UniProtKB/TrEMBL annotation:
Membrane topology: Multi-pass membrane protein
Reaction catalyzed: ATP + protein L-histidine = ADP + protein N-phospho-L-histidine
Main location: membrane
Region of interest called Disordered, as start-end residue ranges on this chain: 383-425
Keywords on record: ATP-binding, Cell membrane, Kinase, Membrane, Nucleotide-binding, Phosphoprotein, Transferase, Transmembrane, Transmembrane helix, Two-component regulatory system
Highest classification ranks of the organism: Bacteria, Bacillati, Actinomycetota, Actinomycetes, Kitasatosporales
Protein name: Sensor-like histidine kinase SenX3
Record GO terms (molecular function): ATP binding; phosphoprotein phosphatase activity; phosphorelay sensor kinase activity
Residue stretches spanning the membrane: 6-26
One Pfam family here: HisKA
Length: 425
């Protein structure tokens, strides 16, 4: 009897354990079935075959939205522009376009101005957005950044307007003077006077056209195509000879000094034009019976030696507000004085582009009433040639010129030329 009771108790315990184990196994199985698998995480709307590859090579910012307006795919450019934040499209007008396109299947396009990311000040982002259906459930948004294109277009419009204005002045003067000559045909003295004025205006017009051609060349031509070692002393001598007559008329003495036997690797014609413009400006804006100095020296730097050519005058100087703009096209510190000297307002713009295309920069130190020093800093020949062949320098017109104004005085070497031996015009 005791044996049967023990067997029965053992059987009962075994049955209870079996039930518990079965229940735990059932619960464990249900948990495994409810747990998402690696593949079930991606059962949301999937891009059609090949679309992902196409979107990865597009230059436009791409965003793919599902039927719940969630972002299925977005390019890195879309994140950079701030179009996608937190997995959602953050631009409400684009989101509304996507909803309308999903509803009727029509392709839509619009241009928008978006605030810059971070909400800082500055020019707004100009974009062109195009929305199209992608299959039955997805919508594709392509966004093109038009900011740079609009900036370049604005620069082009300003340039055309400035050119038109500058050409209008001498052309109008020639027209009026020709009428005056016809009316004064019986007065030899008046004819001679008007003819002299016509010659001045014709010269100004010729200079303007030539400098427009020069500016176009330095912007479009690669100076490395015809690069060669150019001796600095030859460039200085050519610049002095170019301004010899103008300096002699004003009794301005030109002096050259600095380190001898320096060479620059670049386009000889462009370098001569740049330095010639600096010396010509120094002569034009200096009072009579003063001095203009030109000094060259070598600067040792970790990235390679540079050559500095400084042009120092004792002229009227440049104010701080004008120093920020003197390298702009057609900008003149004193428009009335520029008309008197025949200036076109393009000389320093040409210098800036020549310096940038040769991997250098141009800077200015000036104080009103004390004169100015323009410094052209360019890589020395040899190392510059090797560096240019490996990494060609591109001229970035939006340009952004090197900081044109230095508030610290120039090195004393630039001033020593003012007391150097005279180069008589």
């Amino acid at each position: 009897m005791d044996v049967n009771a023990a067997v029965a108790a053992a059987a009962a315990i075994a049955g209870v354990l079996t039930g518990v184990i079965a229940m735990l196994a059932f619960r464990w199985s249900e948990r495994d079935q409810a747990r998402p698998t690696r593949t079930s995480l991606h059962t949301d709307p999937v891009l059609p075959p090949g679309v992902d590859t196409v979107l990865s090579v597009l230059r436009s910012s791409a965003v793919v939205l599902d039927e719940a307006d969630a972002v299925v795919k977005a390019s890195s450019a879309a994140y950079a522009l701030g179009l996608v934040r937190g997995g959602r499209l953050s631009v409400e007008p684009m989101l509304q376009m996507a909803r309308d396109t999903r509803r009727d299947g029509e392709i839509r396009q619009v241009e928008l101005d978006l605030p810059r990311r971070g909400g800082g000040r500055g020019e707004a982002l100009a974009v062109s957005a195009r929305v199209a259906p992608l299959g039955s459930r997805l919508v594709l948004l392509l966004v093109e950044d038009l900011t740079e294109a609009r900036r370049i277009e604005a620069v082009r419009r300003d340039f055309v307007a400035n050119v038109s204005h500058e050409l209008k002045t001498p052309v109008g003067a020639l027209s009026l003077l020709s009428e005056a000559v016809m009316d004064a045909s019986d007065d030899p003295e008046a004819v001679e006077r008007f003819a002299g004025r016509m010659q001045i205006e014709a010269t100004r017009l010729t200079n303007l056209v030539q400098e427009l051609i020069d500016l176009s060349r330095v912007q479009n031509d690669d100076p490395l195509d015809d690069a060669e070692p150019v001796r600095v002393d030859e460039l200085v001598a050519e610049a002095i000879d170019r301004c010899r007559h103008a300096a002699g008329t004003k009794q301005i003495t030109m002096a050259a000094g600095g380190t001898a036997d320096l060479s620059i690797w670049g386009h000889r014609g462009q370098l001569a034009a740049a330095l010639g413009n600096l010396v010509e400006n120094a002569v034009n804006y200096s009072p009579a019976r003063t001095r203009v100095g030109i000094a060259a020296r070598r600067l040792t730097a970790p990235g390679g030696d540079h050559i500095e050519i400084a042009v120092t005058d004792q002229g009227i100087g440049i104010s701080d507000k004008d120093k920020e703009r003197i390298f702009e096209r057609f900008y003149r510190v004193d428009p009335a004085r520029s008309r008197a000297t025949g200036g076109t307002g393009l000389g320093l713009a040409i210098v800036k582009h020549v310096a940038a295309s040769h991997g250098g920069e141009v800077t200015v130190w000036s104080s009103e009433g004390q004169g100015s020093t323009f410094t052209l800093r360019l890589p020395e020949a040899g190392a510059a040639r090797d560096r240019a062949q490996q990494h060609p320098v591109l001229d970035d017109e939006a340009g952004r010129p090197a900081d044109p104004s230095h508030d610290t005085p120039p090195e004393s070497a630039a001033y020593q030329t003012l007391s150097a031996p005279e180069v008589h015009p």
